[in-house]
Amino acid sequence: MDSKRIAVPDRSACAACGSCMDVCPRKAISVFRGSYAVVDDRRCVGCGMCSRVCPAGVILMEVRP
Amino acid sequence: MKSVRSAKRHWYHYLWLYSLFFFAAGFFNILFAWLGLVSFLLPLVFAFGFGTKGFCNRYCDRGQFLRMFGGQLGLSRGGSMPAWMKGKPFRYAFMVFFFAMFGNIIYTTWLIAHGAGSLSEVVTILWSVRVPWQWAYAGGVEPWVASFAFQLYSLMLTSEIIALATMLWFRPRSWCVYCPMGTLTQLVCKRKASSEEKMQEGDFAK
Ligand code: SF4
Ligand code: SF4
Ligand code: SF4
Hints:
The complex is a heterodimer. Chain A has a single domain (5-63), classed as Alpha-Beta Plaits (2-Layer Sandwich). Chain A has two helices and four strands; from the N terminus they run βαββαβ. Chain A has helices at residues 19-23, 49-53; strands at residues 5-9, 29-32, 36-39, 59-63. In chain A, the strands form two sheets. Chain A has a two-stranded antiparallel sheet with strand order 1-4. A two-stranded antiparallel ribbon of chain A has the order 2-3. The longest helix of chain A has 5 residues, at 19-23. Chain A starts with a strand and ends with a strand. The model of chain A has no long low-confidence stretch (mean pLDDT 96). Chain B is mostly helical. Chain B has one domain. Chain B is built from nine helices and two strands, in the order ααααααββααα. In chain B, strand 1 and strand 2 (129-132) form a beta hairpin. In chain B, helix 4 runs parallel beside helix 7. Chain B is globular. The termini of chain B are far apart. The model of chain B has no long low-confidence stretch (mean pLDDT 93). Chain A binds chain B through residues 13, 15-19, 21-27, 31-35, 49, 52-58, and chain B through 2, 4-7, 46-47, 51-54, 56-58, 63, 67, 71, 80-81, 86, 91, 170-178, 182-183, 185-186, 188-190, 192-193. The complex binds iron/sulfur cluster (3 copies). One iron/sulfur cluster binds at residues 9, 14-20, 31, 37, 54, 56, 58-59 of chain A.
């Protein structure tokens, strides 16, 4: 079953540091071409680990559309 | 901040040890500071060669150091960075400033190599505090070689101190948001990604 929430990084403010990718237990978030973080919404379970670790605080946890 | 554990341990999670080695080695023999050039070149190899921030994402010793001490050991207070600090104007300005300082190091080294200027055996912290460091240098190399080492060590130590300060105050890897090398490699990657996209669009148009 899909989780209620999902991680949504703000591309324009992302520093592409990869902290989020390092903590994600589901390998659901990755840095796309060294440019910004992207989330695979089928894998994301909405745990919020990435959002808590992001140094720039640019990952919002939103209700799955 | 509550300590955050990575999903899985990998060998590169131990690269923070290299940071310790670098600063300790330079403390005893300043010539080790030349190794700092590796930290300047590797991220660029990833960015220009592969178009990724692979260095930042995994293999940067400083990034791992901040993650280890700020995150895993929980030394970070975990506050949010102020908006100006993570905004583009500051990030770009800090990058320009930092590389100008690096350029200045090269210029001074060049001057000394050409007989102008002289070697000072000091490590300058935060561009202002000059700490005598003569124990770490026993001579035996050209003055410019030693001078470059002292200056590069100063720059590395200065940025490490700034990085540790924001690690303690904000989230562990807050330095990585405004790290000049991180900003530069992200710019290179974005440029590369968009030009490759354009090339592909060109292919479709044919
Ligand atoms: S942790 Fe934040 S700034 Fe770093 S790559 Fe992920 S979303 Fe971007
Ligand atoms: S919310 Fe959890 S599962 Fe989803 S991307 Fe972030 S860390 Fe991964
Ligand atoms: S942003 Fe700077 S300190 Fe952080 S991982 Fe990249 S190169 Fe290392």
